[in-house]
Amino acid sequence: MMNNNSIPLLIHGGRIVDPGQGLDQVGDLLVDEGKIMQLGAAVILSPSLPVILKELKNLVALRTGSAKDLEAKQRLVLDATGLVICPGFIDLHCHLREPGFEDKETIATGTRAAAIGGFTTVCCMANTNPPLDNRATIDYVKEKASKEGFVHVLPIGCITKGRKGEEICPMAELAEAGVVGFSDDGDPVMSSQVMRSAMDYSHALGLPVIDHCEDKALSHGGIMNEGWVSARLGLKGIPAAAEESMVARDLVLAKLTGAKVHIAHVSTRGSVELIRQAKEKGILVTAEVTPHHLTLTEERIITSPRLTPFQEERAESSQLSALSSYDTNAKVNPPLRTEGDIKCLVEGLNDGVIEAIATDHAPHTLADKNCELELAAFGISGFETAFGCLMGLVHRGEISLTTLIAKLTAEPAKIIGKDSELGTLRVGAPANITIFDPDREWVVDSRKFVSKGRNTPFDGYQFKGKVMATVVNGRIAYMDNFLRSCFEPVPCHSEEAERPKNLAQDKLREGEESHD
Ligand SMILES: [Zn+2]
After folding, report:
1. 340 C-alpha to ligand 1 centroid (Å)
2. Assign residue 428 a region: left if phi > 0, alpha if psi is -120 to 50, beta otherwise?
3. Residue 47 Cα to ligand 1 middle (Å)
4. Burial of 50 (0-12, 13-18, 19+ CB in 10 A)
5. For residues 313 and 320, what is the distance between their CA atoms, to the nearest angstrom?
């Protein structure tokens, strides 16, 4: 899917928002050869479609000189009136589970779910089996992604061999293999000395350490946030201090080593404060927050939203009703916190303490979640709900649309040092584009997820804001059925149609009906 033999695509009449370029205007975007060729109102925007087609024809004519091509190519106009066109979303933190846990997710299913969620680039975590602590496994993931992936996949390498926290990985070798950062996510490096060495190496390599901050001694046995809910239920809690003490340690080590540290899934008020202070002191720290930590509180584990008809139907036929009143789908690490924490996380987004929003997409099987709360796996399948969930913040006036887009595009691109090519609609950049309808309402139905992981606390939630199309390297990786009806495909007798078919896109078309 990453080859660039795409057909020219004119995305017409949308609101183009590219925070990296300070751009927010209604206009057109021309994509060809996998790249952004032109954008703006002045160059291509014309009062009527036929004129646009003529313009496009001229542009193409200048380049190819083939009349037959023109007849085919001029058909690819996507009407984006009323929609927002922005750089493709970048997810700094997800779990694609392959190799080793293909029953939870594969690179094919995970990246397809990512495309539906508007993500055109995802950074996959190293806790696979075998873990991404060696070149061969990283090559395997890259190879698989290039063959079966729907979006770009950038691997994150381990910090320590086997994620055991003892011996540092061959970090230079991993950097050479193309990792964008280092993390033992989920099994944080408990030894300060090992972490110090890792930061020394990552500093020399110019890559960030991506830090899952959790003092395992403090969080041990915890199931949910330590607070009034855990106390009332008599469940072991995970205190905010388990996260904050590790954030504090690693900020100190970042200062000592000069390394870039990226704090993953920040969840507490105290962490936001620590990061804010560190930034004021010039420590090279960046941070991310997840959609669920921005919108759900600890109460969610005991309070379900009103059951929707399809949930009721399922409750009858499955064990849902027998599952006590706890919702294992709200069990996540770090745990969902409090309203006060959410307020500080949103504030952190607005004042720049938190640069990025990342999903921490963590798909699990039904068996991993359909059990007692104590035994259930931590994690939320997040690709397909992230954007709808986040648009709630925009509609409630908590963050601006531009801020939201920046946190999903230009800012994460900077963190992994890819801002010249990713997270931007700059002319000449690879055409990774997300098109969404900010006002379209839809209801989450996990049965329709393309991800193998149906584990979401958002099932049955109504969201306002939906991804309508995702373009990866100039190719349409996902298109909503509604938008598809406004799109004119290439005529089948054209040269384009005779090209070798793209497997990934064909698979996408087959399954199209199932998730809209
Ligand atoms: Zn983590």
Report:
1. 22
2. left
3. 49
4. exposed
5. 10
Q: How many CB atoms are closer than 10 A to CB 17?
A: 21
State the Cα–Cα distance between residues 227 and 241, nearest whole angstrom.
12
Residues 35-70: pLDDT tens digits? 999 998 755 444 344 434 444 444 443 333 343 444
Per-residue pLDDT tens digits for 366-400: 999 999 999 999 999 999 999 999 999 999 999 99
β-bridge mates for residue 96, sequence order: none
Query: Three-class SS of residue 309?
Result: helix
What pTM did the predictor assign? Answer: 0.87
CA atoms of 362 and 350, how far apart (whole Å):
26
Tens digit of each residue's pLDDT (9 = 90 or more) over 82-139: 999 999 999 999 999 999 999 999 999 999 999 999 999 999 999 999 999 999 999 9
Structure tokens at 181: 């950062």
Give me ligand 1 centre to Cα 264, in Å: 6
Q: In the structure encoding, which two tokens stand for residue 47, read together?
A: 């009062």
Considering 215, 341, 360, 480, which one is annotated as catalytic? Answer: 360
At residue 121, what is the residue type?
T
118: left (phi over 0), alpha (psi -120 to 50) or beta: left
Nearest CA-CA partner of 301 in 322, 325, 320? 325
Look up tokens 């504030």; give the residue: 347
Strand order in the sheet with 285-289: 209-211, 261-263, 285-289, 356-357
Distance 91 CA to ligand 1 centre (A): 14
Domains of the chain: 9-84+468-515 (2.30.40), 88-424+446-459 (3.20.20.140)
The C-alpha atoms of residue 27 and residue 33 are separated, in whole angstroms, by 20
Q: Which tokens is 36 given?
A: 């952004």
Query: Could you tell me which residues are beta bridge partners of residue 12?
Result: 79
CA of 212 to the centre of ligand 1 (A): 5
> Is 360 labeled as catalytic in the residue annotation?
yes
CA nearest neighbour of 144 among 105, 107, 110, 176: 107
Tell whether the model's pLDDT for residue 439 goes beyond 80.
Answer: yes
Ligand 1 midpoint to CA 185 (Å): 5
Contact predicate 77/10, CB 8 Å = yes
CB 275 within 8 A of CB 251: yes
Q: What are phi and psi of 143, to 5 degrees?
A: -60, -50
More confident residue, 264 or 490: 264
**Cβ(12)–Cβ(52) under 8 Å?**
yes
